[in-house]
Request: fold
Amino acid sequence: IAEINCHSGIITLRAILRLIIKAGARLAEPGEFTKRAYLHGRIDLSQAEAVLNIIKSRSEEALKIAGRALQGELSRRIGEIRDILIATRAPLEASFDYPEEFTSEEIERESINKKLVEIIAKSKELLINVERSRAMQEGVSIAIIGRPNVGKSSLLNALMRQQRAIVHEMPGTTRDLLEGQINLGGYPLLLVDTAGIQGSEDPVEKEGISRSRKAAEKARLLLVVLDGSKEIANEDREIFRIISQDQGLIIVINKTDLEQRLSVCEIKETFKADTIVKTSAITGEGIDELEKTVANKLDQILGYSDISPIVVSIRHEEIIKQALSHLESALEQIDENPLEITSLELKNAWHKLGEITGETLEDQILDKIFSEFCLGK
Ligand code: GDP
Reply:
């Protein structure tokens, strides 16, 4: 590897690159350096994937999880489980091959049973917090919805603490979606200020409304904004009819700096909601409280637990779940079926888990994993 330091500026850099390539060099493939480290055995596959996750991290928490994986935490835990699997299976296989040398006490179903319970618990522990870790890695989408002029864009601005959304006094100004990214309680949040989700005849507004509805449907958490200085309008009620009950919901009563006409009790009763925050997007009052409430609600939705998360990627989650299904099937069958079946399921689980560290993985999957990397990494 040669490192070339040169003058900055894209034209100079391109010219130098052209010369180097002409002289026989080639551009690195996506993730090639990490792949080489993997192929040369310096790191295993889960560590290589951790490099990608470090690059993709959008919050400090996500970075910590990826950092632990890079140091080999996931590989160590998987290795531990696979070792127990081998230790459990070895005497079984030996007894199939040399039945005369094993007494029935040596191959006790009860002790295999115990081992299986232990491995299943260890595997399940790896999946604790997986959804929350992924949310920390990839971000959570939150939609701000409400009828026109209640202060959605102003709230987005207040949360962003910078003027990225257009704020306007005319109802229906926010015709398209406005997005902003912030970090709250370790979660990278994608905030979408919607154009309103009620019907309109105007074709431009119609398009905005359809996009808003889609954004609201996709969001994990909805911030439904009401104008505290006005009484509940039919349009507000309409919004509550449209939104899904499965999503997290926070009601924001905005414009607390004006004379108030909405009461919290009335809202609780009308909308059957228990999380209500009062804000003024203009004075900033209640914005900190809103931030805390959003973080708490996300912990609630995604399941908070003190255990440090280990697994983030869908690939790892799927592998562990498949291994678990082999182990559970082994446990179910142990009392009634021949031990050959148990042994086979143990082997399947061992093989499956090896896909995480790359020990039992096919080349095509390997290529797919590294193709997600960017050039030069
Ligand atoms: P949206 O249509 O829901 O996005 O509402 P906007 O954010 O565009 O705000 C509509 C109007 O209400 C603007 O004139 C804002 O300045 C005003 N507004 C927004 N939030 C507050 C608030 O907390 N207090 C007061 N007094 N006015 C607000």
The pocket of guanosine-5'-diphosphate is lined by residues 146, 148-154, 167-169, 174, 254-255, 257-258, 280-282 (CB under 6 Å). The mean pLDDT is 83.
